Amino acid sequence: xxxxxxxxxxxxxxxxxxxxxxxxxxxxxxxxxxxxxxxxxxxxxxxxxxxxxxxxxxxxxxxxxxxxxxxxxxxxxxxxxxxxxxxxxxxxxxxxxxxxxxxxxxxxxxxxxxxxxxxxxxxxxxxxxxxxxxxxxxxxxxxxxxxxxxxxxxxxxxxxxxxxxxxxxxxxxxxxxxxxxxxxxxxxxxxxxxxxxxxxxxxxxxxxxxxxxxxxxxxxxxxxxxxxxxxxxxxxxxxxxxxxxxxxxxxxxxxxxxxxxxxxxxxxxxxxxxxxxxxxxxxxxxxxxxxxxxxxxxx
Length: 299
Description:
Residues 1-31 form the signal peptide. This is Carboxypeptidase. One of its GO terms (molecular function) is serine-type carboxypeptidase activity. Its EC number is 3.4.16.-. Helices cover 39% and strands 14% of the residues. The protein has helices spanning 6-12, 14-30, 91-98, 146-161, 180-195, 218-222, 225-231, 237-255, 259-277, 294-297, and strands at 45-50, 58-64, 78-82, 101-103, 109-111, 121-125, 172-177, 206-212. By secondary structure, the chain is α/β, with parallel strands linked by helices. The protein has two domains: 45-212, Rossmann fold (3-Layer(aba) Sandwich); 218-277. The chain is built from ten helices and eight strands. The radius of gyration is 20 Å and the shape is globular.
């Protein structure tokens, strides 16, 4: 789930909070001072993963080991989380969605009962380079296509599993939401293609991929909203006709390559759908109240 203002949250709030995390690790390593944050909220590993041997560009990562896995550690899956955007830091997912602790409205932390690292190792990557804490040595190195995104991610994942022998043979699942609906298939396909060229000992142990509310094929997906809403009884025929007209306009603009106006037209479709249905959230039509996203919208 990503707000249209999510980048503001990333720019101002999330890096500040995560910088506190990193400084806390340094303080705790050099003294017996009381933790500024709960120990469980701090990553087990964090740092930078270079995208190549010839560049200083690097992908920032934060890793949280599984807390209560039902499997031996060597068999416990590693889940990689990629945020969407494009250009949203995965620290949004960490501190707001699926990490072990969440940032509250009062800018404190509270334990997340749905944290994914309860039973899985959880690796957040700020992707692509230039996003969040990740570093692009030059603007020209920032990816402009999914193949380059995948190439950089493959380098980062390969280097991560080399950090600790315990990572080498654990199954890896690549997950993400929203615009990561493009990243996840891209890196999944790249790994399969690359693995076929590598010795068994050098392959990435990809076990699967998972995408939530992914924007994988916008032209196909945007024309599905009216039909879906109509056939589950959320809108009537007149509303369906109006929504379909707006959908076709968004597709027309996308096919023209007018990306800015196409984005605006797609947002108009979603706003129309929200107003027509009166739903608390388009992400889950069974919800009775909106998601609490004040930190995102007000930042």
